[in-house]
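Sequence and structure are kept together here, with a separate record for every protein. A complete record is shown below as an example:
=====
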Amino acid sequence: MDASMSEVTFEKDQPLVRKKNQLVVLLWLMREGPIYGYDLANRFEKVTKGHIRMSYGIIYPFLRRMESRGLVVSTRHGPTGRVYYALTPKGKLTLKQLLSRLQESKRSFDEELLGFLAIYSELFGQKALRGLLSQVQLR
């Protein structure tokens, strides 16, 4: 495993396991250029169709940790005082590696998701499952 991959954690001193997909999404949302924390939280909520909200108490510490690890760099915009964050070359490489690892684990991710959907169907019925799935808007 690359050294930068072993450095990436989401919550203080907690290995990135359950939050891995959220980390990938946050870094992926930063791929197009500088972004400030409030906008990052809003984009995260939008990409999850409002089903997952990322609090500012998570976003800003995440950005500071990623900056301390050299994955992002911050710049303060003079007139607004906003702090914008952008991926560094190391951050872009880490994102690329995380996306690759996520793709490699897609089959197990799919199986786990199907398992949760099967449990949901057993607990709440097929009609409830269809209602849930109808909330997912496909492009």
The chain has a mean pLDDT of 83. The chain has two domains: 3-104, 106-139.
